[in-house]
Known about the structure:
It is a single chain. The protein has 376 residues and is an alpha+beta fold. Helix content is 44%, strand content 20%. It has three domains: 4-169, GAF domain (Beta-Lactamase); 177-295, Beta-Lactamase (2-Layer Sandwich); 302-375, Arc Repressor Mutant, subunit A, CATH 1.10.10.10. The longest helix has 23 residues, at 147-169. The radius of gyration is 23 Å and the shape is globular. It starts with 6 loop residues before the first helix and ends in a 7-residue tail after the last helix.
Amino acid sequence: MQTEANLPQLIGQIYDAALDPELWANVLPRIGEFVGGQGGGIVSKDAATRASTPHYHFGVDPDYVRIYSETHSKFDSLSTLPLFDLEQTVSIPELVPYHEFCQGRFFHEWMSPQHWIDTASAVLEKSALSCSFLAILRTKESGLVDDKMRRRMSLVVPHVRRSVLIGREMDHKSAQASALADTLDGISAGVFLIGEEGQIVHANASGEALLNQRSVLRAAGGRLAAIAADASQELRRTLTTAGGGDAVLGAKGVAMSMSARTGERYIAHALPLTTGERRRAGAAYAAKAALFVRKATLDAPSMPEAIARTYNLTPTELRVLLAVVEIGGVAEIAEALDIGEATVKTHLHRLFAKTETARQADLVKLVAGFSNPLLN
């Protein structure tokens, strides 16, 4: 396992992958080695169908990656992962009772043949329709996810998330360093290349629009500033930190939120351009950092979370409740969730007791009452 002295170098490699997604193939094994895992990847999961798409992976046989994507992702235990906080490391026993997991089809057909016994997962993005997450698998020899792995995951996950978000803003284009500005000009988010003294050396079209609106950002003496005084001070600190390179990023990296005059929320992510593959990207413009600014979007719908909080439901009880709405019968729910019918009935009785209902139809009405009008 890598020591924590290797962390700055690893962080730099993570941010290099924001500019060149092909680098994830080399970065993910290093993340696995650092946190104490032997396989895994970055995966997106559809909220409705529970189907998953592995985007980048390491340490897993390609045939098993294909099998997971085509069939077994619908039987894994990650359906309730979006209910947890962004960047929070979650192991399988926190998602589903571990003895139930070990009796299920996913464990016997996918995990066990590869000698995996646990997964440390962390949500990177979530919306009403899908979520993406980093998953690092553990073998029998390594044991279940432990405190050391959780602590090391907490050191790298914020950077992985930020790199994925920046990569998404760049529309997954493989930007050549010499043509970085041209690539950035095609991005919908506002992008600013910042020089060593904090001056704006390039702004893409969306960035220029934000400056012209003078609702969130402004140019003051050639330097980027926020409209709100307190946000402007934080922005200066953020850009100064980013200009210092990967070694000073810390556990959380460089990001901040700010408000527009209209009350809308914006998120800014700063990407150092002083080391690694990114150094060439900023050299032509004497840029030390790139700042990506976009409107903040809603996280996963609050409806399931609100139901769980209101009735004190466990993750498994919530899965069964949502399956009642989506699927219906006990046998069908058992098959979809890969648990026994007796287990489904047990959870239904607990749901009836906690929600003071008596029939599955009542549960459907209850969930309908929590529907989020923002999703209509």
